[in-house]
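wait is this the right file?? whatever heres the structure
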């Protein structure tokens, strides 16, 4: 009490003004530091980095964050740390916007380093819009052209000789099996075995040709028969060639170049009726006594594949009847009309032909071969590779049809190389065999021999040289890919369709 009475009265003084200069900067920096620690400042920093297009902005710690994480030294430093703290610098007009060298997204150096999903979606939208207009225009002009007769009609009954021929084709594999059993038991010599196989394979391909030419069958029925006959012929050649090599390794004691694995030893055995039956049904053209197998059949997956196969088969019929047939019927012969008229017809036919070709690829190489493989539990299902990315014609042929490619490499290309034939001649022989088979599959059902399919395959050799030169000249170029798409889809296939159609029509009119 005495102390309070003796104390001098309190003096109310005005708070001192903040000193200018360093003290003011320290206070301002401390206030900004408190604000930038909040979540709103972090969100603003990220928003600024996104708006400015700086990908490294949000991930790089600011100078204040680095100082704050370093411990209490920066806080104890007081005014000196605050004087050099530029925490809000990214929000200022003085902040640098251009921090490093960058390429434009569509430049040649950066175009393949990012996603183009948006452009892909745009292409899909444009294709849907354009094709919707074409569908409406076609329906308004022709109406619905597809009928039930496309699948079966009264004229189909006249093709029963072709059906009987197809059902009798298994005779030739059984004959080849009998010959091999005699050869493995040393009952006939190796030259005699080769002669018997040549006779069987020759009769197997000539027999359907004679039946088709003798009967006035539909083109589609003849094509199916020749397609099956060519597959059987390829399988017979592989069966004979592979067993001939197995006999040489077993009976003559010839040493192989590399040490055999367990799977290789299992494949060095005489053929059985079961192995031949499985091979004739399996989705492969290369014979071996045993194949990799899957553990079980996926029934649900198999049902889905069958449904997709039926849907896309119907889609192919719709495209043929509704789009391709009217264009072809109303066209002129491409080699006899005017140049502009021929170009216009080919371009008009190219779009539905591309759709038909892609549907055919998906149905045959993906759905049908996978259905067979699933039923038979066939393990190796590499029926195709990414042929759509091929930069050369040679690369396309190595990826488009893997069963045929493996057959050609195994039974034509490598045997030619082992017998001293140059690589170029081996490639020519491979394409020649492929061209002959393509010509048989098309010319025989059409009952004409114009060699359009044969020339179409043999002309791939100059294109291989051209696209290989472009690939070596310009590294990582897509010019070869564009040439492939142009010659196969825009020009080549529509031209072949027009040529064969008009040749068939001319033959029919002359026959009448």
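ok assuming it is, sequence goes like this
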């Amino acid at each position: 009490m005495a102390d309070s009475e003796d104390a001098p009265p309190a003096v109310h003084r005005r708070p001192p003004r903040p000193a200018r200069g360093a003290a003011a900067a320290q206070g301002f920096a401390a206030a900004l530091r408190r604000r930038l620690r909040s979540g709103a400042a972090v969100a603003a920093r990220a928003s600024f980095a996104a708006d400015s297009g700086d990908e490294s902005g949000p991930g790089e710690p600011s100078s204040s964050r680095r100082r704050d994480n370093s411990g209490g030294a920066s806080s104890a430093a007081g005014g000196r740390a605050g004087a050099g703290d530029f925490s809000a610098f990214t929000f200022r007009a003085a902040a640098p916007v251009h921090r490093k060298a960058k390429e434009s997204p569509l430049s040649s150096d950066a175009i393949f380093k990012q996603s183009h999903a948006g452009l892909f979606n745009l292409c899909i939208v444009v294709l849907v819009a354009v094709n919707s207009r074409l569908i409406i225009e076609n329906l308004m002009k022709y109406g619905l052209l597809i009928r039930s007769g496309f699948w079966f009609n009264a004229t189909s009954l006249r093709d029963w000789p072709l059906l009987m021929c197809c059902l009798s084709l298994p005779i030739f594999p059984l004959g080849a099996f009998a010959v091999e059993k005699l050869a493995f038991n040393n009952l006939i010599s190796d030259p005699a075995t080769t002669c018997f196989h040549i006779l069987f394979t020759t009769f197997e391909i000539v027999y359907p040709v004679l039946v088709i030419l003798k009967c006035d069958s539909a083109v589609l029925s003849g094509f199916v028969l020749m397609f099956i006959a060519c597959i059987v012929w390829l399988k017979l050649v592989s069966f004979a060639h592979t067993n001939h090599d197995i006999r040489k390794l077993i009976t003559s004691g010839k040493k192989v170049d590399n040490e055999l694995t367990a799977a290789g030893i299992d494949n060095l055995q005489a053929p059985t009726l079961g192995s031949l039956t499985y091979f004739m049904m399996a989705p492969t053209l290369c014979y071996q006594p045993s194949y990799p197998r899957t553990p079980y059949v996926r029934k649900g997956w198999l049902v889905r594949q069958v449904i997709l196969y039926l849907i896309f088969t119907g889609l192919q019929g719709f495209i043929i009847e509704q789009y391709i047939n009217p264009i072809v019927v109303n066209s002129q012969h491409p080699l006899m009309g005017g140049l502009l008229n021929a170009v216009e017809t080919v371009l008009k036919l190219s779009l539905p032909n591309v759709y038909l070709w892609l549907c055919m690829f998906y149905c045959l190489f993906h759905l049908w071969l996978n259905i067979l493989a699933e039923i038979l539990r066939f393990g190796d299902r590499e029926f195709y590779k990414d042929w759509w990315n091929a930069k050369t014609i040679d690369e396309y042929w190595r990826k488009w049809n893997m069963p045929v490619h493996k057959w050609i490499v195994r039974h034509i290309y490598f045997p030619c190389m082992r017998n001293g034939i140059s690589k170029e001649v081996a490639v020519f022989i491979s394409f020649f065999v492929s061209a002959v088979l393509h010509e048989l599959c098309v010319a025989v059902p059409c009952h004409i021999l114009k060699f359009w399919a044969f020339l179409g395959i043999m002309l791939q050799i100059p294109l291989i040289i051209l696209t290989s030169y472009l690939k070596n000249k310009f590294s990582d170029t897509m010019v070869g890919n564009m040439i492939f798409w142009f010659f196969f889809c825009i020009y080549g296939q529509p031209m072949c369709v027009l040529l064969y159609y008009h040749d068939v029509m001319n033959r029919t009119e002359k026959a009448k």
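Residues 157-254+262-281 form one domain. so i think its the right one actually
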